[in-house]
Amino acid sequence: MKQRNKKISRRAFIRKGGLAGAGLTLAAQLPVLAGSSSAGKKALPVRALYERGAATVYLKSKNELQYIGMPVGGINAGGMYLSGDGRLWLWDVFNLNQEGINPVDIPWKTSVQGELRKVRSRDGGSYIAPPKAKELRPLDQGFALKLEYEGKEQTRQLREEDWDEVRFEATYPVATITYSSKDIPVQAVLQAYSPFIPLDTDRSGLPVSVFTITIKNAGKHPVKATLAGWLENKAALHTAAVNRLGRKNTTFKEEQITGVYSTLEKTAFGNQQADKSFDYGTLCLAALDRDAVAIADIEAIDNARLFTSTTKVDQAVKAAQQTLTGSVITTVTAAANESATVSYIISWHTPNLMIGDGKVLPEKDRGQYYDNQFKNAKEVASYVAANFKELSGTTLLWRDTWYDATLPYWFLDRTFVNIGNLASTTSHRFKSGRYWAWEGVGACHGNCTHVWHYAQGTGRIFPAMERDNRERVDLGLSLQENGGIWFRGEYEKRPAIDGQAGRVLGCYREHQMSADDGFLKRNWDKIKRATQFIINQDRNKDGMEDTPLENTLDAIWDGEIAWLVGLCIAAVKAGQAMAEEMNDTAFAAVCKDYVQKGSRHMSDQLFNGEYFIHRPDPVKGRKGLGSYNTCHIDQVLGQSWAFQVGLGRVIDQQQTLSALKALWKYNFIKDMGIYAETHTDGRPYALYGESGLVMNTNPKNEPKPFGDGAAWQIGYFNECMTGFEHQVASHMMAEGMTDEALTITKAIHDRYHAFKRNPFNEIECSDHYGRALASYGTFIAACGFEYHGPKGYIRFAPKLNRENFKAPFTAAEGWGSYAQQLKGNKLDAALTVKYGKLSLRQVSVERSTAKEIGKVSVILGDSPVAVTVQTRGAFVDIRFSEKLKIQPGTPLKISIV
Fold first, then answer.
1. Residue 499 in 3-state DSSP?
2. CA atoms of 192 and 215, how far apart (whole Å)
3. Which residues form the Glycosyl-hydrolase family 116 N-terminal domain (predicted)?
């Protein structure tokens, strides 16, 4: 057949370009995809999604380094990025609180032929035009290496330009960067992180980045390696020049470290109140080497001159307009086929945190929490040096525990990486100890309940943060006499119904992630009042909330709305569970009645035979905004939340599965760029060649699917927002729809491949969006994990690789690994604590079938444990005669035949 030569259209070219170079793209992986372009076709499983694979690596040779920005500062300590080649950038540690990491408007066309818009940071600017490290590096910092071997000398900086290959291994919270070139026998390996210890908010919240640099000598002769680290003094980055300050560097030596301490100096003609400025503070660079040489001022940073200075300057002062850079130089020798290691610390201390003009928040909530622990950056560095072995060792232990699993590496990456949002300026901790967060960097005030309740990660990794937020904010300053919870703390004095329900569910999770029942006892009366508020929003007393209140789609909807109804049912069931634990039988009965009525009526009245819908208000009809007969992403959110906290079934199982399958059929879009050509409203969170789960679709092809009036919020319905997608993926995983759950999660992972944009920054309303921490819920569901600390109960029922499964877990007082081997109905399992302790009265595991048990044996360390056993179908509940305390070195082993 004769082929005609055809020009490729610009649209086709853009589509093709969206697929190029990004590694594995989802569209290429799936032989047949469900979604708008293949509705009705069965999606074929992609076995590659289940494969263990290897750690995610990004390479210079594939042009994958330019957008990487891994958070390497402590949680609630500012936003510090590590670039793909190992240098620090962004430096959002000066309390600026700007909107977005790069607060500029980006020109963007909605489609190839569409209108030109300006996209703000809060609308996805960093998605369509991701900032590059070289563009946001306001001060100079780096490392250089001089190698002397076989009579030769080589000097290279640890940067992309100086090496043939740079390899970035992205195992958050620790990055490993390897530098190599064909012409030298040495590799340099840099590990960078900030101390990160799950359950320990203080030691995970240090304003510091740690660099451990290893020289690997693959040659036959010893190599002398001289390493120079430098840091420009840019204390008071934004105001020093305006306030006519000087900057001062001073060298110092202590028992463990040698460094340069960077401070500010007031001048005679300067602002004498400059220490009140938001960015006033100190910086510090130090090497963990008592014999290192510190220089207060180096005039030039280049490969020829960096190591040639013979003048050791111990103190230097310059005007803020001048460049002042300190350096610390250390020397090691690596024998043939051996390695040598040096560690550096970069710390900061900018205590004057204030949100806005400071008038809304009380005086006690001004300033950084870390100012209670350290008075300057030098004290931070000294603390880290003095405790380096424990801080570093425990951080690496967590990294190794997290990745020592049978789950796919890419899955472990994507479900955990968003915990890094806590180490951005999305999340703060005030000097009073109070935790406070934007929705995304600098956008939308005040621990927004209807956003942050999706965030499952914080409550599992740093449960103390969430307990404090419940007590101090939601059940504290935000709780009203009628039980309503202000949904933005001091910033929005009204409740949002979904946020209200999510916070009651959160209270149950925070109770479960406690070692005892103290949290529940202290707060029960308030939790009860908040739960009663939800019940009171059911005007016709049918168990289905129908009072128009704010929701997360920034509008007030009328009618009975499946996703809000189901979420309220789940919240009231959580209230029932807590009431039963508190022996409040009367309130438990009230809750039980609401849950039973609501579940029944939701099933009967809000299910259209395929999915759950929004029934309009009988008087107002469809005049206002709503989802109505459309297929809405959150339609069974209540059941998703219920699985996260072990509440069991709150929405009919078969209807729930049908609803999830409808989301897969109608809402999973193979190519969002093509989809956006006909759905032009919405923000650009997925582009040509990128797949995703869209917020709302119109399977009935109604002319006005979202109501009869115009509303700007309709644009949301055409978007892919990762927090919602993660929520659905976690639910699908819990229901056994593993192919679909993995596909949705992988679609997000591919959208955030480093070739395209920063893999560590999932964007919604601004960067590092809080809702994205819903990703951890998919990990919870994959493990079939349930936990109740006060009851001493833990459960594992893996959804992936059940025959040979291993994964990490966190509990109230410790963390570790769970492993099982399942052959037929024989199950061998082990719980190993790596940090802290785990107190247990009962373990529940799942076999292949409900076949009768032959024998159960349990051993703690070397000692047999007496147990009683009950079965619930395929589940085996193993109860101990007394509470066991499992500690590192004494694993709990279970055998069932």
1. helix
2. 15
3. 69-390
Residue 548: asked if its preceding bond is cis (omega within 30°), the reply is no
User: Is residue 319 helix, strand or coil?
Assistant: strand
Enter the tokens of residue 703.
């002319």
Within 10 Å of residue 597's Cβ, how many Cβ atoms? 16
Strand (E) or helix (H) holding 16: helix 10-19
Which H helix or E strand runs over 171? strand 165-171
State which H helix or E strand residue 567 sits in: helix 562-581
Q: Distance between the two ends of the chain, CA-based, in angstroms? A: 65
Give the pLDDT confidence score for residue 305 in this predicted structure. 67
Cα–Cα distance for residue pair 245/235, rounded to 1 Å: 10
In whole angstroms, what separates CA 52 from the centre of its chain?
Answer: 21
Contacts of 17 (CB under 8 A, 6+ apart): 688, 689
The reported pTM is 0.95
> Which domains, from first to last, does the chain contain?
70-99+134-395 (2.70.98), 438-768 (1.50.10.10), 786-896 (2.60.40.1180)
Distance CA 437, CA 442 (A): 9
Go through 42-76 and write b for each residue having 16 or more CB atoms within 10 A of its CB, e for each that does not: ebeebeebbeeeeebbbbbeeebbbbbbbbbbbbb
How far is the C-alpha of 290 from the C-alpha of 503, rounded, in Å? Answer: 50
Interatomic CA distance for residues 80 and 211, integer angstroms: 13
pLDDT confidence of residue 113 = 64
Beta bridge partners of 814: 836
pLDDT, tens digit, for every residue of 795-816? 999 999 999 999 999 999 999 9
Low-confidence ranges of the chain (pLDDT < 50): 1-44
Whole-angstrom Cα Rg for the chain: 28
Q: Can you tell me the distance from the alpha carbon of 865 to that of 841, in angstroms, rounded to the nearest whole number? A: 11
Q: How far apart are CA 762 and CA 451, in angstroms?
A: 14
Strand, coil or helix: 570: helix
d(CA 876, CA 189): 47
Residue type, 616: P
Q: Compute CA distances 644 → 233, 641, 811, 844, whole Å.
A: 47, 5, 14, 16
| pLDDT, tens digit (0-9, with 9 covering 90-100), for 333-367 | 999 999 999 999 999 999 999 998 888 999 999 99
Both tokens assigned to 367: 């300033």
Residue 248 is predicted with a pLDDT of 98
For residues 785-795, one letter each, b for 16 or more C-beta atoms within 10 angstroms of the residue's C-beta and e for the rest, the string is bbbbbbebbbb
Q: 545 with 869: CB under 8 angstroms?
A: no
Reduce the DSSP state of residue 241 to 3 states and report it: coil
Nearest to 627 by CA among 538, 566, 680: 566
The CA distance from 240 to 321, in Å, is: 8
Return d(Cα 668, Cα 692) in angstroms, integer: 6
How many CB atoms are closer than 10 A to CB 769?
Answer: 30
Give the residue among 207, 225, 208 at the shortest CA–CA distance from 216. 225
For strand 804-810 and strand 814-823, is the pairing parallel, antiparallel, or unpaired?
Answer: antiparallel
Query: Which residues on neighbouring strands pair with residue 165, listed in sequence order?
Result: 180
What does the alpha-carbon distance between residue 516 and residue 434 come to, in Å, rounded to a whole number?
22
Residue 193 near residue 206 (C-beta atoms within 8 A)? no
Across 734-855, the runs of DSSP E, i.e. the strands, are 786-788, 793-796, 804-810, 814-823, 826-836, 838-846
- Nearest C-alpha neighbor of 574 from the set 594, 552, 544: 594
